Write the structure tokens for this entry.
Amino acid sequence: MDSYRAIVVGCGGLGSAALYRLARELGPGVLGLEQFELGHGRGASQDHSRIIRLAQHQPRYAALARAAYRAWAEVEAESLQTLVVRTGGLVIEDRDARQGLATGTRNIEGYTEVFHRFGVDHEVLDADEVMARWPQFRLDGGERAVHQSESGIVDAARANAVHIALARAHGAHVRERAAVRAVRPDGAGVVVETDDRTYRADRVVVAADAWTNRVLRECGLRLPLTVLQEQVTYYATPHLAEFAPSRFPVFMWHGEHNFYGFPVHGEVATKLGQHMGGHETSADERTFEPDPVRRKRYELFVQRYLPRFGGPELYTKTCLYTVPPDQDFVLDTVPDHPQVTVAVGAGHAYKFAALIGEVLADLAMGRRPAHPIDDFSLTRPALTDPAFPRSFHV
Ligand SMILES: Cc1cc2nc3c(=O)[nH]c(=O)nc-3n(C[C@H](O)[C@H](O)[C@H](O)COP(=O)(O)OP(=O)(O)OC[C@H]3O[C@@H](n4cnc5c(N)ncnc54)[C@H](O)[C@@H]3O)c2cc1C
């Protein structure tokens, strides 16, 4: 039986970050196990771009946002690879469309309140001011927006590969196409079984997102997770300069639907997605077929508000969100088995991935993380009370 100080199950965005942080400390005593090929497109982390932002409307995430940028800067400094591109970011609220909708704090006031609390520079703009600075937008007039200059893009696919490469540089072992069939706490350690090998480790990090419950089966834990099939569309706009990262910000649109968009990055194309717009599925039942209803919805949004952002569709890509009922992360050790650490990104974790890697390494090593993560515990009501209602509609 091969023995390791630590094993990371799942080498997606969060697992690869944890592997790197553990390898910095434990060198060859760390093993990463990935069921598919590294860089596969079946999970949640494989795409050219994810939004990173200080623009948070919930204090528990705002409290982590600056540290997330610092953690990415550390990875960039060690690898000399650019992973974060600051484009500035707009949060646009379509007030007319949201009349009567339960918006909670996901509105301009919700953001500015948190900005003031955390000392984040920002500008509040009306529709005319937005169109004056970004004439790419064609707004109706009832919109309001907040601009934050640090927002931008994390190149997820690149960052996953950089985390894996740096982990290997520190001596970590990484096995792809090595599906973990069981994680079994055993005394103070853990037994990890794959089809062809059995490993023993002092501690295990499970960052398996949509497959989390399957991997944790023998840890006596089943989480109330909803898996959603999300999709993003790339448009081969002919107006490349207008939508270059230096001239067009990442944006989030809070209206009848919550859209988000990117300047030209990765592909020679702009990209649009809808947050929490997907249908419920599972890691096994998900398809790679785009939903034509959402595809049409994206097209109509672009035609109305960003006519030159669009163009021939390059492709539409599907991807998975794995969401607890309260839409909050899971970052904790298993109560009865503290040698097993669990991470679930709840559909919005990539911006924090580098920092979450650090937090997971601390938890796995039995240290109290330097960052406030109590809101993401495994013992919170949303994960333990079967009657806890989902805070989202599917
Ligand atoms: C369309 C879309 C847009 C998003 N946009 C943003 C954004 O703009 N900003 C942001 O911050 N976040 C965003 N997110 C969320 C973010 O991408 C995810 O929260 C994050 O990528 C989750 O990473 P992960 O490592 O937990 O999941 P994954 O990347 O899915 O990794 C889990 C890994 O575990 C492996 N695995 C599972 N079971 C086993 C097993 N038994 N044995 C071995 N390996 C196993 C899987 O194969 C997989 O590689 C978006 C997500 C989607 C889908």
